[in-house]
């Protein structure tokens, strides 16, 4: 992957996306055309090779494009448990080390934002990017007093890039949404747009970090890096460097399952506490936004996408969880109605649709033995089959826009816990945070 500046024009970016979709579509069509000639292991091997090839195309193109387009690719990569391991490995690059922008460009951005040469700002500044993401990249540095820091720098013209992407993605999502649902698209798009635009304001992210640090100041299992205010602006965010075990190492055989279970418990409690107690949810569940320590603690990075939870929504989710814990499935339709999830005319979701999902979730909160994420290897297939079976009943479904990033966050962490194969006291944690 070479250093390339991202395309900034709306036309240029939609051409890139169109070209990518065309190449991937042609490749998949060609594979289907000759698929009949193969069978068994050979057929599966060819399919996997083709998927890996197309995943590499997606990573290269979206990684170069940055912006909201890359963010969509990262969202896709969250569902790695649904993908062949080889494909998940390729897509995970979008979460970790996407193509970087040349260091001289990023130095210029830092110097312009902080109004001083790099040499006056830092004792040392690493030219190579430590991490690259959708709207910026991180460089390690050392402050004049010797403290190691991480400097998060926005890409040049990223505001124009995101604006271009939002126009293109809105057209794409609106078309797809209209095929699947009859509900009003605008409020849902507004929620997606607002969260993406918030990520452009590093001053807002710094305030999120300070607020989270205050909330978790007495929670030793969670580490929030400290913001360095004098070296931070709206497009440069400097924070203490807190290193840990990166995700790909953490999930390897190098570490015992007992430790992975503890990391999983911390991640799970971090989520349920955010939803039910703090009403402030870290809503970007890429596993790359976390690092791990051998004493069981978890370091949390990237606070650009946070979801503040309205009281009504938190109370609604709490009622749903209590119904599952107490095996009151008959209460779910009315609870969903109260939450704002219903069919046209405020018709409750039918018990027939709810029951199969309830059974899956009920199994996860069993007490003895505690559920192991990933133990049911057909879980995602079951979810997809249920979705297909109930699709015609879901087209006229309405739901509040506030749940988009809540559900995204929990779905992403389901994948994270599955990757860790974590077993833990899920029932007890849910009971503790939802008991009034």
Q: Which features would summarize this protein structure in a list?
A:
single chain; 436 residues; alpha+beta; Phosphorylase Kinase, domain 1; five-stranded antiparallel β-sheet; three-stranded mixed β-sheet; 18 helices; 8% strand
Can you describe this structure?
Helix content is 56%, strand content 8%. The chain has helices at 10-34, 40-65, 67-77, 85-91, 93-96, 103-114, 118-121, 158-180, 185-198, 202-215, 247-250, 257-278, 311-325, 332-339, 351-364, 379-394, 403-420, 426-434, and strands spanning 124-125, 131-132, 136-142, 148-154, 222-223, 236-240, 280-282, 290-292, 298-300, 306-308. The chain contains 18 helices and 10 strands. The model is unreliable at 36-40 and 76-84 (pLDDT under 50). It is globular, with a radius of gyration of 22 Å. It folds into 3 domains: 10-95, no CATH class; 100-242, Phosphorylase Kinase, domain 1 (2-Layer Sandwich); 244-436, no CATH class. The protein starts with 9 loop residues before the first helix and ends with a helix. With 436 residues, it is α+β, with helices and mostly antiparallel strands.
């Amino acid at each position: 992957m070479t250093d390339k500046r991202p395309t900034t024009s709306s036309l240029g970016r939609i051409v890139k996306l169109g070209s990518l979709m065309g190449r991937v579509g042609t490749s998949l069509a060609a594979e289907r055309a000759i698929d009949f000639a193969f069978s068994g292991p050979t057929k599966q091997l060819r399919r996997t090779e083709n998927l890996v090839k197309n995943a590499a195309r997606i990573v290269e193109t979206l990684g170069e494009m940055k912006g909201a387009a890359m963010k969509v690719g990262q969202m896709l990569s969250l569902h790695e448990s649904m993908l062949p391991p080889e494909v998940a490995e390729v897509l995970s690059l979008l979460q970790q080390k996407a193509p970087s922008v040349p260091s001289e460009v990023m130095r210029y951005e830092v110097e312009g934002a902080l109004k001083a040469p790099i040499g006056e700002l830092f004792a040392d500044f690493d030219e190579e990017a430590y991490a690259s993401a959708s709207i910026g990249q991180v460089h390690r540095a050392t402050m004049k007093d010797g403290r190691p820091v991480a400097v998060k720098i926005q890409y040049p013209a990223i505001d124009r890039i995101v604006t271009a992407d939002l126009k293109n993605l809105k057209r794409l999502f609106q078309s797809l949404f209209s095929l699947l649902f009859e509900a009003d698209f605008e409020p849902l798009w507004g929620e997606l747009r607002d969260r993406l635009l918030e990520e452009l304001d590093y001053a807002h992210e710094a305030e999120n970090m300070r607020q989270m640090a205050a909330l978790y100041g007495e929670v030793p299992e969670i580490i929030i890096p400290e913001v360095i205010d004098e070296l931070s602006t709206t497009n440069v965010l400097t924070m203490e460097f807190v290193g840990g075990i990166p995700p790909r190492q953490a999930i390897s055989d190098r570490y015992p399952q007992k430790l992975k279970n503890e990391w999983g418990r911390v991640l799970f409690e971090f989520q349920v506490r955010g939803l039910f107690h703090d009403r402030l949810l870290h809503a970007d569940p890429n596993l790359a936004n976390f690092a791990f320590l051998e004493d069981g603690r978890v370091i949390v990075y990237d606070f650009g996408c946070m979801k503040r939870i309205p009281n009504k929504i938190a109370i609604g989710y709490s009622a749903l969880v209590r119904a599952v814990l107490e095996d009151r499935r008959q209460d779910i339709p009315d609870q969903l109605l109260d939450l704002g999830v219903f069919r046209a005319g405020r018709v409750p979701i039918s018990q027939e649709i709810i029951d199969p999902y309830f059974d899956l979730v009920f199994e996860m909160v069993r007490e003895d033995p505690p559920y192991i994420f990933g133990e049911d290897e057909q879980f995602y297939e079951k979810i997809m089959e249920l979705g297909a079976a109930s699709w015609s009943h879901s087209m006229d479904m309405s739901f509040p826009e506030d749940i988009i990033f809540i559900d995204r966050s929990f779905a992403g962490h389901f994948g994270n816990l599955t990757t860790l194969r974590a077993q833990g006291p899920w029932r007890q944690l849910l009971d503790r945070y939802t008991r009034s």
